[in-house]
Amino acid sequence: MTHPTTDADKKASDRVIIFDTTLRDGEQCPGASMTFEEKLEVAELLDTMGVDVIEAGFPIASVGDFESVSEIARRTKRAVIAGLARAIPGDIARAGEAVRHAQRGRIHTFVSTSPIHLAHQMRKSEEEVLEIIAATVAQARNLVEDVEWSAMDATRTPVEYLCRCVEAAIKAGATTINLPDTVGYATPDEYRTMFRTIRERVPNADKAIFSVHCHDDLGLAVANSLAGVEGGARQVECTINGLGERAGNAALEEIVMAIRTRRDILPYETGIDTTMLTRASKLVSAVTSFPVQYNKAIVGRNAFAHESGIHQDGMLKNASTYEIMTPESVGVNKTSLVMGKHSGRHAFREKLKALGYDLGENALEDAFRRFKDLADRKKNVYDEDIEALVDEEILTAHD
Ligand code: KIV
Ligand code: ZN
């Protein structure tokens, strides 16, 4: 990580807008679709936890999507509600209609800019795409004040052409410019440099807020997003649990906690109530039926669990030895010291205390040996196993 270096980086140095796209890109994750009611529930929680922009869906995609975006727009008190639209007049009109009743509505329109997409998907020339950008952004801007334009596959677009596209979009009225790493191809250095270059070269760049949108195909989505912020972006597009197309998007909880935990080198702020992160993760996992991997950063069930004897001993002496954030800060009640074959005497003694046992030194030694034998044979050692083992120890001692 590097510090913000240019004047422009420093000027914009604190607030990072959190744009959640769980209900749009997240729902594009195969098998993760949500019902109308589930979407309303997720949107309400996102709004309560302080998400700045909720991308509620892709209104042209289906009647269901249109209805859920409209209803979320009607109900949401605080967050900006965005509806996605391709660079097609019908899409833009539909998105405008869907966010019409929002207190603060946004149309998010996108078009591909990379040579690969232009040749094989769009079958259009660079000049034609520039004309499309100007016309569609202007159309959106006639419907709402808040227009986001995205350059799909920006990271595989030559920077000279990307600059022309960005300039055209801002000229036509875009207020946010999103430069996605659509296929998760960029590295952090490349992504940071791309933002710096575009912001330096595009004459009207200071009229828009720049945004990152990273996919996780190489496992770099969060690192790339943070690098983009270092390059001057001030909006991060992300999803709860990192849900999203293919390998997913940058995980909201990881972005927010990285910024909070490493303020020393990431001198930014978000408006997220981090104590709600675990609740949001559980809700999204439940409504999509997508389990959260046990070792997932921040919200995985092992994120605050320690098994090794060395770590447990450290944790019992001072939590900062092996935890860089508190479980409470993300809405988890407490750290757990998981009893297993790697656990040591110190943790075992504390576990017995917590279970209400007070054994003398010899009995404790005996019980600890038997616990280690058991842990070698059994994958999970539960409190009940330890209780049974100690009760047996006490009974044997009485015989
Ligand atoms: O990944 C992407 O490029 C997108 C755009 C629609 C913003 O999701
Ligand atoms: Zn995406």
UniProtKB/TrEMBL annotation:
It catalyses: 3-methyl-2-oxobutanoate + acetyl-CoA + H2O = (2S)-2-isopropylmalate + CoA + H(+). The keyword Transferase applies. Pathway: Amino-acid biosynthesis; L-leucine biosynthesis; L-leucine from 3-methyl-2-oxobutanoate: step 1/4. Its cofactor is Mn(2+). Residues 16-278 form the Pyruvate carboxyltransferase domain. Its EC number is 2.3.3.13. Mn(2+) binds at D25, H213, H215, N249. The keyword Amino-acid biosynthesis applies. Belongs to the alpha-IPM synthase/homocitrate synthase family. LeuA type 1 subfamily. Catalyzes the condensation of the acetyl group of acetyl-CoA with 3-methyl-2-oxobutanoate (2-ketoisovalerate) to form 3-carboxy-3-hydroxy-4-methylpentanoate (2-isopropylmalate). This is 2-isopropylmalate synthase. It comes from Chelatococcus sambhunathii. The lineage of its organism: Bacteria, Pseudomonadati, Pseudomonadota, Alphaproteobacteria, Hyphomicrobiales. The gene is leuA. The chain holds residues 1 to 399 of 522 of the full protein.
